[in-house]
């Protein structure tokens, strides 16, 4: 029976005393962070917001597999502070310009004995939150570092409600969001969204996940959330010094919408490494997809095969007629006919099926200004895909296919890695270190061919689109396909959950706009018609699908007009109102015109939201083209009740948005000639 | 955007329908277990108690690193039921005879496609709970199995309170128990104790942890507790078929005391593999230990060195004078003088320090019937210890040292493994697969030398003492030493927590009986004098220390008499009352006489407990030698207020036990000549 400490240290453990050794605050002073070293030489940080504790004493440190634990006997060697204020431009995005304004503290810690190993804790504090990361300098006592666990904590100091999805389950990220007291969080994926009892909104996530294991958060005692890195072997993370961890991020906002307007995650990523990326232009697309989930067509060849030359021509014609740049075709290549789910190694990423004339279709599309969108489902045979991807991208580049949707359909922890051809196949987690590198290898290879990547069943988004702007979108949540066959389908609150949780990480290819409002076997989608339109504004992505079948759009041409008009690239974004999981209204200004667009979605409740139009440009009159729920609309009883109307407005006006149960509203604001009337 | 299932399976996922394919009940019918297979071919079990759901649908399955997930597409191939009713004898323990009465169901599942991999789910249902384990038969499609996660769930179907300590923290097991709503459990070590709102007591743990990773429990959504195996590499568990997992155990009792009286964990272990183990006899010991924690002596050599020849002789004399068989000496061997905590590889397990004459002391002890108790602190250099242990045990065996306390003092996850001399040192978790095998290698090597092992900072106890009866005790919780230097020290409720949590796993070497009631620098121990005596009955171990200094016992000879009298081996055990974390009264009958002993402990509350003496043998009169709190006793103000009194009693009597705040009571019942008066 012995303490966990040598006697020499025991003596000093009696007092719980800790000294604050360094501190840093946000430019506006509202957020203050302090670093402590206690008598054992253990590190902790704490965060206050407007002078009140928000994150209590939270430990920092590591358990290593190839070395002693790195968490005690540490002392501050030096600290350096600096500030930065600048503005950078997004090649595409929710806004054009991003202000990057922070105060930085670098605190260098060294072990006071043993091998005097060292690392820095770097804090960047912005007005909208902070990032914390560990930086390991090159040092003789630590070359290869095998991290068994990172002990970073987030000790939430106020009672709070949490919105979260579980980690380490058999599925990946495709869960409905749970809304529970913080105390009832189990092991959660990030981002996790919290709202304190006194109304402060917090999102915990990470930025710049590169060559490291994704961080999940496990609730320990009290309300301590602790990092739980995604497993890998021989350790969760294996790196050589020098290296940095990803940024552990804490976004803080008074309004729920403040989290959505925050650029913290992007600001904590490295600048564009790809140079000129003007070869990617945000756009909308249609494609052979919804029919596959309806099971009226199949990925596999045969009588139901969707990806035929004739069917694809039909989609190209439809796209050309209605102004969509892209046509996605799934099931176009060889490998779908077996049990691809069990064996992704059968996929051939350069070989079309016999009934699909890729070359001719690419040429046919080009003649009409339509680009095919490539599809690379891997079935999680990631190493198999890596061996073929360069040839596959070369083929696509030659054919003008400049956007590719990748897929990693398999259960959690089943990403198949094979380091050398013929070596053993081992499984990795979707959020593990190996897969974080795999995704970047794919994105960089695609960039060399001027191809953009839209990854499904992906590793989570941590803002890497700033550094790799051809990584345009991801899935990584429950998408529209669950409305085709999900049990249950997505509930009315789903969009209002996604906006304030998954979407905080980055763009999501949700594939909105199913105006037929029915899934497989006629299962109703829990949405009104207008809400499907609002999704295009509310759920940001630089590549947006019109997911429904052409024949369905022909039946709803009036509503379809909004989908045709709405852009996929923005100058600016404002969240006008919203509560996590309940409702949200977002206004965005087109990047390529003076038009503004508004989208509002509700949950299962009917609501009337009074919206000030003061986001509109001063001195201008706008024609507001309104797509709203009909007066009797209700997702359960009258989902198709829908009204399109127009009226003239200026920034002085207030609009009362009436949202039906499961409803929404979409508005396009078109500037009118001449000045606003007084 | 794609489902997690191939289309072929998608079709059948729409209904959530599941079929019950097998079921089994306890001999008394109170506990019923059902196995389900749903439309996806996923397995689940559920448990009802007295007809009401206790554990809801809980998934079963595995995520593998070197193969596809093993959790879907399964079908029942066959099921076999059998029953067993027998009684076996414990060579030492809380009771002499154990009834083993259960109904068993073996359900064999096979994948309906792919490689048709197979495993059995085996359920053994007793009247006091159940065990569930997976058995993997030898099969061509699965030879080496690398388990990345076991997905076993425990979906607690009723609101409940939980008593638990966290897993994956920097410390090992030495935490105060948290008492929270089940919903607020984070990631917990096992055993974890639950009490449902309607008063059912449940302990979740495991039995027969052999060549597998220890199971922790992480709370997922709702009240689902999910297995979280302790990490290792290349996977959490690496085995070859055929193999079995440990038993996942669910103890169920109406009274808190029912959990303590349960032999479920022992019944789910294999019978004694060591044959005649009469060479180990439970006993009590004193030793050079408390002074080290008081920091008045040191493990290291020098002026404060405790383990000197002269000082050890003083303890041998004291042991001989008062009838203690053993004398533990810590700091006797070479290796303590450096920073042993950082480098356990300096320990020499056969080389005494210069001021410690091991041979002479062993002979001196033998001349007085006293045996030295060996001490092997490894500092977690487990492989280093394995290389020396056979020589060390040979030495001890020759000197009559037949019990050894081992130690693994280091932070969590820092067990040092080196597969071949000179190879890299890698760290493993205390509860990981590698360490589960290390401990058994030590225990089996010790058995060959007729030596018993008392492991500190150990892997958790899972009942292996049935199979290896020389694995006599462990620490694995916050022990008495925290009263010397802990911040905070152990609170008054600590024993009432331990009895219903840690002690459910097996014997604990708590090292009770510090009658001086003071720690380092006079820090008060939060206990009355009588409570220190009660610990000997309440906290079961076959090896019990009188932990205080000889000179302190000389000052409390009246109370010390109970420590001299109380045995360490029992015929029978009864829990007379108790509530988790509040109080408990336990009666035990001496294995080697007709005496009964009673111990009662309270938390910070004063209580009067009316106790029926109907556990006493009928027709007998007993002299009750009572050691109780004085009327004004209170751990804060009058911890030494203490009364010893005697009275005659029979099983017809009811005693009112008055326990002070932080108090307790200890009673010895000695049969008197002649029949009980009527």
UniProtKB/TrEMBL annotation, chains A, B:
Residues of the Glycosyl-hydrolase 97 C-terminal oligomerisation domain: 569-669
UniProt keyword annotation of Transcription regulation present: no
Organism from which the protein derives: Agrilutibacter solisilvae
Alphabetical list of PANTHER family matching this protein: GLUCAN 1,4-ALPHA-GLUCOSIDASE SUSB, GLUCAN 1,4-ALPHA-GLUCOSIDASE SUSB-RELATED
Pfam families in the cross-refs: GH97_C, GH97_N, Glyco_hydro_97
Protein name as catalogued: Glycoside hydrolase family 97 protein
Highest taxon of source: Bacteria
GO MF: carbohydrate binding; hydrolase activity
């Amino acid at each position: 029976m012995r303490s966990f400490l040598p006697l020499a240290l025991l003596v000093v453990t009696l007092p719980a005393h800790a000294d604050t050794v360094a501190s840093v605050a946000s430019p506006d002073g509202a957020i203050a962070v302090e670093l402590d070293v206690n008598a054992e030489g253990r590190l902790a940080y704490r965060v206050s917001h407007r002078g009140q504790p928000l994150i209590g004493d939270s430990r920092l440190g590591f358990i290593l597999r190839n070395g002693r634990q790195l968490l005690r006997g540490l002392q501050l060697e030096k600290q350096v502070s600096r500030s930065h204020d600048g503005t950078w431009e997004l090649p595409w995005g929710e806004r054009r310009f991003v202000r990057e304004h922070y105060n930085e503290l670098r605190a260098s810690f060294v072990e006071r004995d043993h091998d005097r190993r060292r690392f820095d804790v770097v804090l960047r504090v912005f007005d909208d939150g902070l990032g914390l990361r560990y930086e390991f300098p090159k040092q003789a006592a630590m070359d290869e570092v095998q991290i068994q666990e990172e002990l970073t904590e987030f000790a939430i100091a106020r009672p709070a409600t949490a919105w979260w999805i579980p980690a380490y389950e058999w599925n990946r990220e495709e869960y409905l969001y749970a809304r529970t007291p913080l105390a009832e969080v189990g092991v959660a994926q990030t981002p996790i969204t919290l709202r304190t009892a006194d109304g402060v909104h917090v999102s915990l996530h990470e930025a710049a996940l590169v060559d490291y294991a994704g961080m999940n958060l496990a609730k320990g005692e009290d309300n301590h959330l602790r990092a739980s890195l995604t497993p890998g072997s021989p350790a969760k993370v294996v790196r050589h010094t020098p290296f940095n961890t990803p940024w552990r991020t804490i976004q803080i906002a008074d309004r729920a919408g403040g989290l959505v307007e925050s650029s913290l995650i992007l600001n904590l990523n490295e600048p564009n490494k790809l140079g000129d990326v003007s070869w990617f232009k945000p756009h909308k697309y249609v494609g052979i997809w919804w029919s596959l989930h309806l099971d009226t067509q199949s990925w596999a060849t045969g009588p139901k095969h969707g990806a035929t030359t004739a069917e694809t021509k039909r989609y190209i014609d439809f796209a050309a007629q209605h102004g969509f740049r892209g046509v996605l075709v799934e099931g176009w290549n060889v490998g779908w006919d077996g049990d691809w789910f069990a064996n992704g190694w059968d996929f051939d990423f350069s070989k079309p099926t016999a009934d699909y004339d890729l070359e001719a279709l690419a040429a046919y599309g080009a003649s009409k200004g339509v680009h095919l969108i490539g599809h690379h489902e891997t079935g999680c045979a990631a190493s198999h895909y890596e061996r073929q991807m360069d040839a596959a991208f070369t083929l696509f580049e030659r054919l003008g296919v400049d956007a590719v949707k990748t897929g990693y359909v398999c259960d959690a922890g089943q990403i198949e890695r094979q380091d050398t051809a013929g070596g053993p196949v081992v499984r990795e987690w979707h959020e593990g270190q190996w897969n974080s590198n795999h995704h970047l290898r794919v994105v960089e290879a695609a960039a060399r061919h001027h191809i953009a990547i839209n990854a499904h069943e992906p590793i989570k988004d941590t803002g890497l689109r700033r550094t790799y702007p051809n990584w345009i979108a991801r899935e990584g949540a429950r998408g529209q396909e669950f409305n085709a066959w999900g049990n249950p389908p997505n509930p009315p609150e789903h969009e209002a959950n996604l906006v304030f949780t998954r979407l905080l990480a980055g763009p999501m290819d949700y594939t909105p706009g199913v105006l037929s409002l029915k899934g497989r076997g006629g299962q109703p989608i829990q949405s009104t018609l207008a809400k499907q339109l609002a999704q295009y504004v509310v759920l940001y992505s630089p590549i947006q699908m019109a997911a429904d079948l052409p024949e369905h759009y022909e039946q709803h041409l009036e509503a379809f007009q909004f989908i045709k008009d709405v852009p996929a690239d923005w100058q600016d974004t404002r969240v006008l109102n919203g509560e996590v999981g309940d409702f949200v209204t977002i206004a965005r200004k087109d990047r390529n015109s003076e038009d503004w667009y508004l989208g509002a979605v509700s949950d299962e409740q009917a609501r009337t939201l009074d919206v000030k139009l003061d986001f509109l440009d001063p001195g201008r009159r706008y024609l507001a083209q309104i797509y709203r729920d009909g007066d009797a609309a209700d997702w359960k009883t009258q989902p198709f009740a829908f009204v399109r109307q127009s009226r003239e407005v200026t920034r002085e006006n207030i609009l009362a948005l009436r949202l039906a149960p499961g409803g929404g509203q979409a508005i396009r604001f078109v500037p009118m000639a001449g000045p606003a009337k007084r």
